[in-house]
Amino acid sequence: MSKIICTEITIVNRLGLHARAAAKLASTAGKYSSAIKTGRSPDKLVDAKSVMSLMLLAATQGTSLHFIFDGTDAERAQRDIEQLIGNRFEEEH
CA 63, 93, 80: angle at the middle one, nearest 5? Predict the structure, then answer.
């Protein structure tokens, strides 16, 4: 059964959504069959599985991003992405 989850997640790492962080986010999103979109506003979302699209968001530390998870594994995808961002992309603490 498909599920749609809408949430906001704040980028907390010092360097923001730079190349390595964007690659980790896209890689994590790519593990799921759900469609995962993100952006600064709910009406301008990009594919969270695309590194280039994520980098174009230019999300610095403190930026709140809207996420929409749409699919059968949406809950797991949301949990993993929230954990990845909350752990500062496993960079610095």
Answer: 65
